[in-house]
Design goal:
Chain lengths: ~525, ~525
């Protein structure tokens, strides 16, 4: 029999999880301090005449001596357009190597061929920020991995790698521009995706690092995001991906009238809160309503001649407009979400690339997430304790991601969640979220199309909204109101099998995902 | 009784040196491979609202809990204009702290107040690339430190820090531009010095990092050479240094007719060697004749429409002209030597900043030193085995530096030494150098005003020079010829006391410096 522990958010977790290990339960956003040293990779040696350029992914795998049981890493800057993960994994499978753990910054629908590799035992471990589509379904319903997927935030991944909790044997880095010694950037070339925030960490902490490029440039590359002293091999391929598939629906401003109403309400609440003032720092997650908030804030900023300090996050063309039009002085960018933003980072010195560690790692000496005044998040569920779910659906299926939400919610002075109260008659505001991703103790306001709720621990904000004449209601009333339309959601039937562990950014466990029955 | 070991260059070293440790003798430029892991600093934690800005150097020292026995680091990008090392050391002395080891990228005449701190026991360890003036004299004649100074090359310092052979407790970084969270660069502000090559390493491997700036900029600084996630504290002072004192005589092209003759001879030898061709990579050390070689090469390149790939090193205004005029496609810069070059790195994207590790560390996955075709070095002595001394004078006094000479000599396909045969009747070409800094097995040609000698192990170059009708002579004949004018140099009388250890870039020992009698 397993014993159980309880997190600060009152959810019960097993003390030990097979395939994961001992559980340290979440105990507050800044309670867990690191005690260890950063990981140090084995030192290398180079000499004149060393050749890094090799002709195929297969040869790269042979050079790095890929073998059973290794952990390898990938980034998802090319999102749905990524060709590299599948290509490397197909080659590894073809070589007969088994028992590989993948540490990806995230996984997208493009990576569904992984299912076959998992079923055949080529892949037996997954670390990621998100999981979607057929892989998410297969893991939630069938536990195809036979052990839990470890979900980490963008900051938590950087932390875990720096701490050596995830030891990467080989990092594969898709590089839109690279020279023959491995100096690279993400901003130039036919497959340009912009900032290289995730692999900036991998390159420093992986034992071997393979750059894969479709744009070999003369040495020395002039714009260096990751320097050659960290790179072992350079492989040239025809194409690393399809940059047209980087931007997804999630990165465009919505035209949906409900989302626009929510965004308008959110902007009003933000303005009333007093945080939208000269030199404020702002981030909005991807997702329709979340981005639409920018649109309404912009009008207010122009009218009141407010200039923000920086906007951050996954950077879209919409944020680029705000920079170019002088509404923000800088963009801090760890992951670029569309072609317009990728072009901006190349040309505009005020559009600044940052590593995932500088973005959101809680266990270094600063991160931009902790410098935010305002964060706007979307959610697939929010409960009466303001806990947010952005990973699993109400059916228990794995279909989303942690992203930077827990990082920025903890860091921002004011975190606002924008969400409709229901989607297709499924309630979004619920008594208890299917899984906790971002803890309610880091969420301040929920804005929906039917009402606004303020976290009771933020009396200061409640007073500001009251003073501005903005109507609010308790989140419980809001939930009950929604249930009048949707009815009480059905309880999902789960087995005892744990198919996912949701780590908080500091390495504690926030929640686990059980296999659906 | 101590036992002795012998290096590949046949100099005898004690097996063990008090105040230094066990000696691993030099055994060839690429024979010593690392086996350990890189050092990892203790992890930190940050949270929203953290304040890094503090009001004085004293408060910074209190915050980092400076104490007896610590190792602290400094960079010398401000060269003779640096105010920071003295200011920090005066404060440490004032606090009554003792037994501090200083790991400086180099020390200049500006740092002579160190003598008092050494004599009082505040400073009891020195790691540096160079030592000059009164400190060099006091250590060579009196061993004021009571143990050897450890001399390292620029690449060797980066290596030793990454390897954890030197563990830095606190790094102090003079920052010409810095924001309140510690994002910094060296290119902007009244004390701009250009590239931040040395502290780029310190910031990653020091337990605590203090930025000291005279130009506090709004957060976020737009040009980030060292990111905030590595910085603990930011101190604002009136002035970090006098940038007018960065450029010294060593960084201007000579007008001395002997030096110009040597440079002209060297350029002819270089051209005859066949290495001056399309896309060649080039570096010249500081020093009159060495820089003057560029002038003659430039004429040849223009005439023959040759464009080089990159020029590297300490970067001067002269190299900037070559870049701007299209003679080289890029500059790789770890340390900027004058105001014109500092301005260039700010404005020209083809003028690329690199860390000392990317420049010259032999124990990572590449360095620019290993990508060089041609290196031109100056020397204070060269002997019949082509060994170079650039640290000690013929009197045994410590008066120079290792710099990047051993790094680039090992890396370049062709290394040419330019030196006059004598200075003030003191022979430069000698039977045996006072101390070996750069081993003769990495030197290919010596060019003087009285003759050219090719290292016998480079028969290919000898043939090229013969074919071009360039007269050469054996280095032994050249030495004997010089002795006709100067007479045999007097033997220096040494004691048994070792006052300096000269490490090769890979951490082996190349030579030791004995106290003069």
């Amino acid at each position: 029999m397993n014993n159980f522990v309880e997190t600060k958010m009152k959810n019960r977790l097993p003390e030990f999880i097979r395939g994961y290990g001992q559980v340290k339960p979440y105990c507050g956003p800044f309670e867990t301090k690191p005690t260890a040293q950063k990981y140090g990779v084995k030192m290398s040696a180079s000499k004149p005449g060393d050749v890094k350029l090799i002709s195929s992914v297969r040869e790269a795998l042979e050079k790095v001596e890929i073998k059973d049981g290794m952990t390898i890493s990938f980034h998802h800057h090319l999102r749905n357009g990524d060709y590299i993960l599948n290509r490397v994994m197909d080659e590894i499978a073809d070589m007969g190597v088994r028992n590989i753990s993948i540490c990806a910054s995230s996984l997208t629908n493009a990576h569904e061929p992984l299912i076959t590799h998992i079923e055949k035992g080529v892949v037996t471990g997954l670390h990621t920020s998100g999981l979607r589509g057929a892989i998410g379904k297969a893991q939630a319903e069938r536990n195809i991995l036979g052990k839990p997927v470890v979900f980490r935030t963008h900051g938590g991944r950087a932390r875990a790698i720096e701490a050596g909790e995830v030891k990467i044997d080989v990092a594969f880095i898709a590089a839109p521009a690279c020279d023959e010694m491995g100096n690279m950037n993400g901003a130039e070339g036919k497959s340009a995706f912009g900032a290289m925030g995730y692999p900036l960490v991998d390159a420093q902490y992986a034992e071997k690092v393979v750059a894969i490029t479709d744009n070999l440039q003369p040495f020395p590359l002039h714009r260096v995001s990751i320097p050659m002293n960290l790179i072992d091999h350079v492989v040239v391929v025809d194409s690393i991906g399809d940059p047209d598939l980087i931007a997804s629906g999630a990165t465009r401003v919505t035209k949906n009238p409900t989302d626009l109403l929510i965004a308008k309400n959110a902007a009003e609440a933000l303005i009333a809160s007093g945080y939208i003032k000269e030199n404020f720092a702002f981030q909005a997650g991807s997702g329709g309503a979340s981005l639409a908030v920018c649109k309404f804030l912009r009008a207010y900023m122009e009218e009141n001649e407010i200039t923000g300090s920086f906007a951050a996050g996954g950077v879209t063309g919409y944020l680029v407009d705000l920079l170019q039009d002088g509404l923000f002085k800088a963009l801090l960018d760890t992951q670029t979400f569309d072609a317009k933003a990728a072009d901006s980072i190349k040309r505009n010195p005020n559009h600044i690339e940052m590593s995932a560690s500088m973005y959101a790692n809680p266990h270094n000496k600063s991160c931009s997430a902790h410098q935010l005044d305002v964060m706007v998040l979307s959610a697939t569920e929010i409960d009466e304790n303001f806990n947010i779910n952005s990973l699993t659906g109400s059916t228990g299926r794995i279909m989303g991601a942690l992203g930077g939400a827990p990082d920025t919610a903890a860091g921002a002075k004011l975190t606002v969640v924008v969400a409709p109260t229901m989607r297709k008659r499924i309630p979004i505001v619920v008594e208890k979220v299917t899984n906790i991703v971002t803890p309610g103790d880091t969420i301040d306001i929920l804005v929906t199309e039917r009402g606004i709720s303020v976290n009771p621990n933020r009396k200061d904000i409640q007073e500001k909204l009251d003073a501005a004449g903005i109507e609010t209601m308790s989140i419980r009333s809001l939930r009950e109101h929604v249930e009048n339309f949707t009815g009480k959601p059905e309880q999902i039937a789960y087995s005892d099998d744990i198919v996912g562990v949701i780590e908080y950014r500091d390495g504690t466990v926030m929640d686990v995902i059980y296999k659906t029955m």
